Amino acid sequence: MSAKPDPRSGTRDIEHCVNLLASGGVVAIPTETVYGLAADAANAQAVAKIFAIKKRPTSHPLIVHIGEAGWLDDWATDVPESARVLARTFWPGPLTLVLNRHPRVLPIVTGGQGSVAIRVPAHPLALRLIRAFGRPVVAPSANRFTHLSPTRAEDVRAEFGPAVEFILDGGPCRVGVESTIVDMRNGAARLLRPGGIAAERIEEVLQQPLRTGDSAVRVPGQHPLHYSPDARVSLIKPEDLADKALSLARNGLRVGVLLPSELAGPGWSGEARIVPIVVPASPDDYASSLYRFLRSFDEQGCDVILASLPDARGLGAALCDRLRRAAGPRA
Ligand code: TXA
Ligand code: MG
Fold first, then answer.
1. Is the dihedral of CA 219, 224, 225, 231 positive or negative?
2. How confident is the model at residue 331 (pLDDT cuts 50, 70, 90)?
3. Residue whose CA is at the smallest distance from ligand 1 atom 13
4. What is the distance, to the nearest Å, from the Cα of residue 94 to the centroid of all Cα atoms in its chain?
């Protein structure tokens, strides 16, 4: 396994990845959201390797990553005009559309469902790779099932070690949380997962509110135990962070704190067992670092992580969703 640090030096790496994909291999690729584990979407054995590497149940469907919106009708049918408008507006970008599956899409990709999830990623290396390969790749986030998604090549390596043959290093992911998933079937627009495109922006383009709540489709991103670091995560009110951190530290625990900037100050440096990270005030900046922050608490040996939910507007919705799941029930 190897990785190249310079995102621009990629031509030989891209050729190498194309060859690996064509021979049924699995490669880790950068996207603007998080790193993905990519395989040829048209090769069932290659797709099966992804489930095995991730230890992901095969009932959980994968996103088909296409090279441009023009490929859409080869992989989905009955695409409504509203979905085309979203594709034109947000692709390449962190929006995944759930549509009726084209018969060409392998059942292993969709978990046997009649729908397929599709997006065009915005990372230049991912686009070059998919276009050079000439057909779509499936790419779930490059993490073990229920663990944190990786936002740097190093984090992919830490997740899988030599089980992943090659990591295409595209630097740190710009968006930092996974794509927003919207089910566009049956004349409706239903938000299945908040993510890198704010729901408000989608509603503005559609000029209608997104539906939320129950849906017939299975979405493992909706599994309550998901996006978890090794340390236990507790969500508490911002005004209680300092007292709670201190009492846990006095009980001998190492405590990571995602600290809102308005609460930062010299008072936080006194206790060696407390590891504060001041989180950016802008939700977009916070999103781009959230998984890195959580990983760094694990790397620093924290037993517990304290966090408060930010304002849920814009990318704040994705932040709240991921923090709630990180704090969700453990296996
Ligand atoms: O940003 C992203 O979307 C990243 C990057 C690598 O592109 N990928 C990602 O993939 O997050 P994954 O496998 O970790 O999450 C895919 C989500 C899951 O929640 C899955 O259930 C949902 O997409 N999904 C896939 N196919 C679906 C379908 N046919 N209907 C409904 N949801 C689907
Ligand atoms: Mg995932």
1. positive
2. low
3. 140
4. 9
Order of all β-strands in the sheet with 255-260: 232-235, 304-307, 255-260, 274-279
CA distances 292 to 7, 13, 151, 177, 283, Å, are 19, 25, 7, 11, 15
Distance CA 30, CA 129 (A): 10
Q: Which residues line ligand 1 (CB under 6 A)?
A: 31, 33-34, 36, 60-63, 94, 96, 98, 110, 113, 115-117, 121, 139-141, 178-179, 181, 192-193, 217, 219-221
What DSSP string describes 52-82?
HHHT--TTS--EEE-SSGGGGGGTEES--HH
Using pLDDT thresholds of 50, 70 and 90, give the confidence band for residue 2. very low
Q: Give the ligand with the smallest distance to the CA of 57.
A: 1
**Torsion sign (Cα): 197, 201, 207, 212:** positive
Which ligand minimizes its atom distance to the CA of 96? 1
Q: Which of 63, 116, 145, 148 is the best mutation target for the ligand 1 pocket, counting ligand atoms within 8 Å of the beta carbon and taking the most?
A: 63
Burial readout 239-261 (b: 16 or more C-beta within 10 A, e: otherwise):
eebbebbbebbeeebbbbbbbbe
Strands 304-307 and 232-235: parallel
Enter the pTM of the model. Answer: 0.95
For residues 266-275, one letter each, b for 16 or more C-beta atoms within 10 angstroms of the residue's C-beta and e for the rest, the string is eebeeeebbb
Cα–Cα distance measured from residue 172 to residue 30, given in angstroms and rounded to the nearest whole number: 8
Task: Dig out the tokens for 174 from the structure.
Answer: 């710009």
Residue of 59, 181, 197 to test ligand 1 pocket, by largest number of atoms within 8 Å of CB: 181
- Asked if the model's pLDDT at residue 1 lies above 90, the reply is no
Ligand nearest to the CA of 148: 2
Residue nearest (by alpha carbon) to ligand 1 atom 21: 219
> Between vectors from CA 62 to CA 57 and to CA 67, what angle results, nearest 5°?
160
Reference 121, options 138, 133, 107; nearest CA is 138
